[in-house]
UniProtKB/TrEMBL annotation:
Gene3D superfamilies on file: HUPs
InterPro entries listed in its UniProt record: Rossmann-like_a/b/a_fold, Universal_stress_UspA, UspA
Coiled-coil ranges from the UniProt annotation: none
Organism whose genome encodes this protein: Mycobacterium branderi
Domain of life: Bacteria
Lineage of the organism: Bacteria, Bacillati, Actinomycetota, Actinomycetes, Mycobacteriales
Family matches, as Pfam families: Usp
Name this protein carries in UniProt: Universal stress protein UspA
Length: 298
């Protein structure tokens, strides 16, 4: 069904949970701000058919959406789309999809045609309510486009916000994509960008003072090089450059407390992205109470 989606639109997964309602709210504002189509998607879980000792199941055994499931799915989507009612703005186009399958697989497939995927940090199931949630975790590992993870503890506002956008930079391709996304988001919102660069994941107290000074000087130069081209492209974005020596997750989360959005890379080398998704990106997406965009590339 993904080939029916408007190309390069925003896709939001909804399941009726508070987190998915918050995700829908954030996605509506993002799509309206960028004048992009928005698609609400609800995936009805179906256990995958796999090879067995008797071979794959016959075509007649493939499950279909029952009338009852269709009604439930449409009710969940209708509840999410009611967010748009009464607003002074709305996305250029709103579409709705009810799919049957595995939520992660279906949404990953849709991500091939989307500008961005938006999901709540946790879903309705017991499994999804553990830590980051199985669906959001699967998407930040496997999606083919950036993934926005939204928390419901501090629901996003539809009103303009002057708080800054935060991005973690380490110089890797993944953090370069995160930097591009962060500049674009800050420009659309008309807010400051905080560019945070950590040159080590070691504890600051484990580093000698001479080595610390040398590393810090090098980090200042690296950050300046990584920002130069983007500041030329986005002259309207004011940048607050911050160099930290250690513990990138802690510093990102501290900055997130007074920000409206955090952008991180999904993998890279050293610093923020180099500790792989299992560390910084997942930790930030899980612990931050503001929306977090994990940069994913096709």
């Amino acid at each position: 069904m993904s080939n029916r989606l408007p190309p390069q639109g925003i896709v939001v997964g909804v399941d009726g949970s508070p987190a998915s309602t918050a995700a829908a709210l954030w996605a509506v504002r993002e799509a309206a701000m960028r004048e992009l189509p928005l698609t609400f998607v609800h995936v009805i879980f179906a256990a995958p058919w796999g090879p067995t000792a008797f071979g794959r199941p016959p075509a007649s055994a493939v499950a279909e959406i029952s009338p009852e499931q269709e009604v439930t799915g449409q009710r969940i989507i209708a509840g999410a789309t009611r967010i748009v009612d009464g607003l002074e703005f709305s996305p250029t186009q709103i579409d709705r999809e009810v799919l049957l399958g595995q939520p992660v697989s279906e949404l990953v497939d849709l991500s091939k045609h989307a500008r961005m995927l938006v999901v709540g940090c946790r879903g309705q199931s017991l499994l999804d309510r553990v830590l980051l949630g199985s669906v959001s975790t699967g998407l930040v590992h496997h999606a083919h486009c950036p993934v926005a993870v939204i928390h419901d503890e501090n629901p996003p506002s539809l009103q303009p916000c002057q708080l800054p956008v935060v991005v973690g930079i380490d110089g890797s391709p993944a953090s370069e994509l995160a930097t591009a996304i962060a500049f674009d988001e800050a420009s659309w919102r008309g807010v400051e960008l905080i560019a945070l660069h950590a040159w080590s994941d070691a504890d600051e107290f484990d580093i000698g003072s001479t080595e610390w000074s040398a590393q810090q000087a090098g980090a200042v130069e690296v950050l300046a090089e990584r920002l130069a081209g983007w500041q030329e492209r986005y002259p309207d974005v004011s940048v607050d450059r911050r160099i930290v020596a250690d513990r990138p997750t802690r510093h990102l989360l501290d900055a997130a407390k007074s920000a409206q959005l955090v952008v991180v890379g999904s993998h890279g080398r050293g610093g923020f992205a180099g500790m792989l998704l299992g560390s910084v990106s997942t930790a930030v997406a899980q612990a931050a109470r503001v929306p977090v965009i994990v940069a994913r590339r096709r």
